[in-house]
Design brief:
Blueprint lengths: L2 H23 L4 H8 L8 H13 L3 E6 L7 E6 L1 H26 L7 H8 L16
Antiparallel strand pairs: 1-2
Helix pairs in contact: 1-4
């Protein structure tokens, strides 16, 4: 089995949730979304992002508005809809359940875990860590 492909498939599976989470933070346009996700191991390029944004728009999860830029042509800024916020919350809840289930599968029941893993297992995992990682060596 190809580990790179397996990792890519896992990342692809959470990409929609990550993009919605970025848009939920504030109104944004695609290059800002790409920049926000840069360094998170979610390798996204605009060629991947635009079809996803169109699908999210068609599903009523995001909307957009054209805004004039100080330089260049107008930009399409995306914002999350109420339906999108509800969907993101449901995805986040499912993500947390999945992370807990996978941890339980990998490490066993909480009673059987070593003390170091017990304490971290009882904490609710973050919904999503999409903060850029610092450059290596820092």
């Amino acid at each position: 089995m190809d580990i790179k492909n397996a990792k890519a498939q896992m990342r692809k599976g959470v990409l929609e949730m990550c993009v919605l989470a970025v848009i939920a933070e504030r109104e944004t346009y695609p290059p800002e979304i790409v920049e926000r996700l840069r360094g998170t191991n979610l390798f996204i390029v605009e060629g991947t992002l635009y079809p996803l944004l169109i699908r999210l728009k068609n599903d009523g999860l995001v909307d957009y508005i054209w805004r004039e830029g100080s330089q260049g042509p107008p930009r399409k800024y995306f914002n999350i809809t109420d339906t999108g916020r509800q969907f993101l919350q449901e995805l986040t809840d499912s993500w947390q359940e999945l992370v807990e289930s996978v941890a339980q599968t990998l490490y066993g029941a909480a009673d059987e875990k070593p003390a170091s893993k017990k304490s971290s297992a009882k904490k609710t995992p973050p919904a999503l860590n999409i903060e850029p990682m610092p450059p290596s060596g820092e």
